Amino acid sequence: MAETLSRPRRRPHAAPLLVPLLFVLAAGAGVFWIGTWARTTVVVLVRHAEAATDPSGNPDLSPEGEARVRGLGEFIASVLAGGKVDYLFAGDTRLAEQTAAPIANQFQLPINLLAPSDWDGLASRIKRDHRGKTVVVVGYANTIPGVVSRLSATNIAMSSDEYDSIYVIVMPSPGSARLFKLHYGPGNAPGKKPRVGPE
Fold it and tell me: Is residue 10 part of a domain?
């Protein structure tokens, strides 16, 4: 009696099934990547306003400084596309806190104080913890240039009497950072056209 040879059953190829699956996974990964990375971080840096004379070394704002910052919160709201700030940092001095106060009031935010030792790591902290957010930093002529440099790869210098400048760094992700310079206070109307880069 002759044996009948049974042919092995062919398994369907997995490739036609895997291609759509891989496409779905790739699309899902793309959406996740866009949601995670394609965000724009905006950092607004303001130097404290004019100081009163105080031999203690921790002065308050002068009357000129108080007048300058009176409309600072509204000014920042007017130049931001979304009119919104998510986080507010300020140096731990009266000058910085008093300059930050109108911003805190405008956006209903607490003022997160920075000790002198915090400034070197601030740029990394913003990139790590506040990606896709709008952050305002109130600092000093000797701290703002370093933060600007680390965030935008642009070097700036602030003179001792430069109290009306605001630096805005726009950091799309992915993309290159762009630096804008604005002026505020008496004689500088809200919404004034920014000049790109340092002056």
Answer: no
Residue 186's CATH number: 3.40.50.1240
Domain that holds residue 152: 39-164+172-196
pLDDT tens for the chain, 199 residues long, are: 444 455 555 555 555 544 444 444 444 443 333 334 458 999 999 999 999 998 778 999 999 999 999 999 999 999 998 889 999 999 999 999 999 999 999 999 999 999 999 999 999 999 999 999 999 999 999 999 999 999 999 999 999 999 999 999 999 988 899 999 999 987 554 444 444 333 3
d(CA 140, CA 91): 8
| pTM exceeding the 0.70 threshold for the entire prediction | yes
For residue 156, tell me if it sits in a domain.
yes
Q: 77: how many CB neighbours lie within 10 A of its CB?
A: 16
Residue 140: closest CA among 56, 53, 50, 69: 50
